[in-house]
Write a structure and sequence with these properties.
Blueprint: H1 26-29, H2 38-48
């Protein structure tokens, strides 16, 4: 029970590899947004962040 646990931490830009954006599935499945390109949809998501 006396074991020490060592955690690896990420510093600075190392943490950037775990960044993500939440994308509403509706943008890709709903007929209303069918006319928009995927690039436009992703640009919308990124600009909201």
């Amino acid at each position: 029970m006396g074991k020490n646990i060592k955690f690896d931490y990420y510093y600075g830009k190392e943490a950037d590899q775990f960044s993500f954006y939440r994308i509403p599935k509706l943008l890709f499945t709903d007929e209303h947004f069918k006319g928009l390109s995927n690039d436009a949809k992703l640009l919308y998501i990124i600009s909201r962040s």
